[in-house]
Design goal:
mainly alpha; 13 helices
Length: 201
């Protein structure tokens, strides 16, 4: 699935400027409806400026109006003539000059994208599970100076790779129907930690 650039900022814009449902926005931005609702409630993404997908040639106003008229319709992103090239799979090399920024990037991912598994973060940022655990538990040697910063802005990963990781993680999150039927089971599914065997696979 192709995701828009800056999906969270795009979601902010769609919430503020359109009458689309949370589910429609979530599916377009590769997020979970609960995350979109949290943005609308001001619980997350505070301070993020909306990113206009029309101005940036990712959506048309007619497409938005089509989906506003039909809550079950799904937004279709404009196909780009110059798709971003995906890097080959394998270990990610992080330049020495940027390695000091990595803890900040990990903290950002843990805060903004809690649905990502440690394995995904390892692949995305070229770090280790031990480092992730220490930052999560505030046991890192430099915890006092770690400030969450966007890894894309820091140059530690591309927006395309981040979007792909979020989309992959979102596929395993509970749907709105599951939450309505059994909120406790859905919450357990949402926040459960993958087993060691799953992570190694």
């Amino acid at each position: 699935m192709t995701l828009p650039l800056m999906p969270k900022a795009t979601a902010v814009w769609l919430i503020e400027k359109t009458g689309l449902t949370f589910t429609q926005i979530a599916e377009f931005c590769g997020m979970h409806p609960l995350e979109v609702q949290a943005i609308a409630d001001g619980e997350v993404a505070a301070g993020i400026n909306g990113y206009d997908p029309i101005k940036n040639n990712q959506l048309t106003m007619s497409e938005i109006k089509r989906c506003e008229a039909n809550p079950k319709a799904k937004l279709k992103i404009i196909a780009t003539a110059n798709p971003v090239a995906r890097r080959a799979k394998g270990a990610r090399y992080t330049p020495v000059s940027k390695r000091n920024d990595r803890p900040d990037a990990i903290a950002f991912i843990l805060r903004q994208f809690p649905q990502l598994s440690d394995t995904q973060i390892v692949r995305l940022l070229g770090t280790t599970k031990d480092t992730i655990a220490k930052i999560r538990d505030k046991q890192h040697w430099n915890s006092a100076n770690i400030k969450p910063r966007d890894p894309v802005i820091l140059g530690l990963c591309t927006q395309t790779d981040l979007n792909a990781a979020v989309a992959e993680a979102t596929q395993h999150m509970p749907s709105e129907d599951e939450i309505e039927e059994d909120p406790f089971s859905a919450a357990e599914k949402l926040f459960s930690t993958p087993s060691r065997q799953e992570e190694e696979e």
